[in-house]
C-alpha cells in the first residue's frame, strides 16, 4: 500500500494549486466502500502519463484512490498496461486542471482526460473489476496487483469489454480551401485568423502521429519534431487540419521552410531540423474520438480544438478573433505576416472544396519594377543568380528598391540565366550605384553586382516599403511584357504602399 503520508509529504501546498487533503491515510481498495465517480488525468510531467482515480470512502470522507498509468488505460481488449498504485488524492482533485509550477512534485500541465461514473463489479485483495461510463472510456476494466517493485505496488490494467459505440468513418482528408478576396472586412457572422505561411498538413493522431500533405502524401518522416503531437492532445484520437510553419524572428517564413520540404534522407532531415525547426499550427478539427466533426459548425470545431491541444514547441492552436477582420489585418501587416483568413460562422468543413465560407485576404502588395542587375547566388543557387536588383523611376532616374531573391521556380531560375547574359551591361543603370549598401534587414551589403540593360519589367509582391524606400520581404511573381520600363514609377509604388 502507498505510504499514508504520501500526498502531503510530496507537496508544498503553498506552492502548488493542487487542493489540500480532507482526510489522512490511504484506504485499502480491497475493502473500502466504492463511490460513484471516476476520472482520468492526463499529466504532462517529466514523462507523459495518465492517472486513473476512483472515488472510494475513507471513513465518511470520499477520496480518490489513484493509479499512475504510463500508457493510459488500454484501448484494446487483452493487452495489459502497467498501473502503479499511488497515494490517495483528495476528492477535490477530480476537478483539478492546470499547471503545477516548475520545482514542485509532478510539475507540468494537468488535464482531465476523462470523467464519469463507475460501478464496482468485483472487489477483493489485489483485484478490482469495474465498469467505466465516461465520455471517452466505456467498458469493463480489470485491475490486478502483480507485485511490488522498489516499494511501488504494481498492477496491470486490462480492458475486458469495450462498450464504446461503433466509431464513425473517418471523413475525406482532402483539405478545405479558401477563396482569395481583395479587402479585409468586419462582420458579425465571421471569425478571422492569421494566414500561416507554411505547408498545409493534415495530422492523424491516435497511438502515433501521421502527417499528410495537401495531396495526401505521407510526410511524417519529413518533420520528426512534430511526429509526436498526438501526445499533446487530450483525446483518444483526432484528425487535425493545420499548417507546418518555420518561424523566423516570430514570423512564419516560407522561405526558411522551403529547405525542409523536399528532404528525403534521415540524416539530412536531422541536420535541417536543428537549423530550422518547424511547428504545427492547428486550425481545424475533422474527427475526434471516433466522431466525425465535418458537419459541425466551425465555431464548435474551434472550441473542441482549443480544449484538445496542450501547447508545446511542437504544436499550438491558431488564435482567432471574432468580427474584426480589419483590425487583425492591420496587426498581421505590422508583424509582416502574409494575410488573414475569414471563416463564416455556422459553416461545415467542406473537404476538398474551395468555398466562399473561407476567404483569404493577403496583406502583401504588388509592384511593377524594372530589373537593373543581379547578384551571384550561394549554396544551391551558386550556379545561377541570388537575387534580382530592381528599381522604379522618379525624376532622379531609376531608383533602387531592393533585391528580390525568392519566388522563383527551379525552371524559371534555369530559364533566366541566358537572358541575364544577353542583357549584361557594364554601366550601372541606377541613379546611384548601390554597391556596398545594405538592401534589407537580413541581407549583407551588396557586393560585386552584375548590371543589366534595364529593359525587363517584373511584378513582385512585397509587404511594405521601408522609410528608405526599400521593398520589405519582396518575392518575384512574374515578368511583364505588356508594360514599358519607363512606366514603372516610384510614385505608383509609394501610393500602393500607403493604401
Ligand atoms: Mn500524475
Please describe the structure with a list of short key phrases separated by commas or semicolons:
mainly beta, D-amino Acid Aminotransferase, Chain A, domain 1, 13% helix, 3 domains, single chain, 8-stranded antiparallel β-barrel, elongated, OB fold (Dihydrolipoamide Acetyltransferase, E2P), 499 residues, 7-stranded mixed beta sheet, binds manganese (II) ion
Task: Write structural notes for this entry.
With 499 residues, this protein is mainly β. The chain has 3 domains: 6-162, no CATH class; 177-362, D-amino Acid Aminotransferase, Chain A, domain 1, CATH 3.30.470; 366-498, Nucleic acid-binding proteins (OB fold (Dihydrolipoamide Acetyltransferase, E2P), Beta Barrel), CATH 2.40.50. Helix content is 13%, strand content 44%. The chain contains 7 helices and 29 strands. The protein has helices at 6-10, 254-261, 266-275, 298-308, 325-334, 410-422, 490-498, and strands at residues 34-44, 48-58, 61-69, 81-90, 98-100, 108-124, 127-134, 138-149, 152-162, 177-181, 186-195, 199-205, 209-213, 238-248, 251-252, 278-288, 291-292, 315-317, 321-324, 339-344, 354-362, 365-376, 385-394, 397-404, 424-425, 450-462, 464-465, 471-472, 475-480. The strands form 5 sheets. An 8-stranded antiparallel beta barrel has the order 1-2-3-4-9-8-7-6. Strands 12, 13, 14, 15, 16, 17 and 18 form a 7-stranded mixed beta sheet that branches. Strands 22, 23, 24, 25, 26 and 29 form a 6-stranded antiparallel beta sheet that branches. The termini are far apart. It binds manganese (II) ion. Residues 43, 45, 49, 51, 68, 106 line the site of manganese (II) ion. The site of manganese (II) ion has 6 residues, from strand 2.
